[in-house]
Amino acid sequence: xIVCWPLLSARWSRFALVGLAGLWAFAVGLSRVALVVxxxxxxxxxxxxxxTIVPTVAVLLRAALGPGGAPDVxxxxxxxx
Length: 81
Prior knowledge:
Layout: H1 11-34, H2 40-65, H3 72-80
């Protein structure tokens, strides 16, 4: 997902990618509970942990890299390929 991020120039495509990843995580969590390989509280706890960590990392990265997102060197390397 991180590798695809600089290639997605449209804002809606980034939202779609994040939404797709969220739906996938939700479905995997439900399947773990349905298959009785995890307790429901384990799955909900993991979801809450991710909901806390991902925005925190996003804010820290935006503060470190600036409003443009990825450094120009990374974007240039990805777009040249």
